[in-house]
TrEMBL record:
It holds the Pfam family Phosphonate-bd. PANTHER family: PHOSPHONATES-BINDING PERIPLASMIC PROTEIN. Coiled coil: none annotated. The lineage of its organism: Bacteria, Pseudomonadati, Pseudomonadota, Alphaproteobacteria, Hyphomicrobiales. The gene is phnD. Belongs to the phosphate/phosphite/phosphonate binding protein family. This is Phosphonate ABC transporter substrate-binding protein.
Length: 303
């Protein structure tokens, strides 16, 4: 409630200053999705705080790590954030509520040239489970209600692989782990028998793949992949978008986009830090790239 009230207050201030805000932006506000240790998220984006003021001509860059996905989504809908990196389902939620709130401008390119990733289901290796069917009648954990790989894709794709049986009928119980990192930790603790998280699907499982939540956890030293086994992998999911506030001054949008496009070459360490793994570059996207996820989310809401 406090977070939403704060966003509302900032939005009211934005309305009061009127159209001049976009033309004379002093503070560039970056929203960071929840689900990972806050100190780690702030550390990953520090390079943006250091670089962007001179690039954009603003006085400072402020980071806003939300407690969950919806915190960042509401900040973007309220116009109190200028840039964030979302999952496709998070963007779909914004689009379905107000398609003019943000613009998707870029997404990442995997090391194999693809612009997608996968939802994967993992369990403890010592559980004895090796395949999806072993989870029948057990407890499945999802990452976040607004996560693409951690909820939307599994809940819509799994029934096809379960013999057209609904998720709520196949598993004894489902729940949310409070973000991808926390979900995997809860699986390791035994809170869930298995859980869904995201990974590039490129490279080796033993390394946490080339990018994704597992890779980030391995690199932080909080996960040993020998403790996990993979039970399921989804079809390819569109990589999430970099979005900017639609009402932002066009000149600033262009400067920001050019900076991001160059980042993989100008500062590979910064690029890897904010993306959480190995990618080759960014590529341009439009809302049409996310239409299948928008449709899936709309259908899920109505189901």
């Amino acid at each position: 409630m406090f977070r939403k009230a704060l966003y509302g207050a900032v939005a009211l201030t934005a309305i009061m200053v009127g159209g001049a805000q976009a033309e004379d932006l002093k503070v560039f506000r970056i929203g960071i999705l929840g689900g990972e240790n806050e100190a780690d998220r702030l550390r990953s984006f520090q390079c943006m705080v250091d670089k962007l003021p001179s690039v954009l001509g603003v006085e400072k860059v402020s980071l806003y790590p939300a407690a969950d996905y919806d915190g960042t989504i509401q900040g973007l809908l309220g116009g109190t954030l200028d840039y964030a990196e979302l999952g496709a389902s998070g963007y779909a939620k914004i689009y379905l509520e107000n398609k003019d709130a943000v613009e998707p401008i870029l997404t990442t390119v995997q090391t194999d040239g693809s612009t997608g990733y996968h939802s994967i289901m993992v369990a403890r290796k010592d559980s004895g489970m090796t395949k999806l069917e072993d989870m029948k009648g057990k407890k499945l954990g999802f990452a976040d209600p607004d996560s693409t790989s951690g909820y939307l894709v599994p809940v819509t794709s799994l029934p096809k692989d379960l013999g057209n049986v609904a998720v709520k009928e196949y598993f004894a119980e489902t729940g949310f782990g409070g973000g991808h990192e926390n979900l995997v930790l809860e699986v390791l603790k035994g809170t869930f028998d298995a859980g869904t998280t995201w990974a590039s699907g490129v490279g080796e499982f033993k390394d946490g793949y080339t990018s994704g939540n597992l890779r980030k956890m391995v690199e932080k030293g909080i996960l040993d992949m020998d403790d996990l086994v993979q039970l399921w992998e989804s079809p390819l999911i569109p990589n999430g978008p970099i979005v900017v506030r639609s009402s932002m001054d066009a000149g600033m949008k262009d400067k920001f986009k050019a900076f991001m496009m160059e980042l993989p070459k100008s500062d590979p360490a910064c690029f890897a830090a904010i993306q959480g793994g190995e990618y080759t570059s960014y590529t341009e996207v439009t809302p049409a790239f996310y239409q299948p996820i928008i449709d899936a989310r709309k259908a899920q809401i109505g189901s």
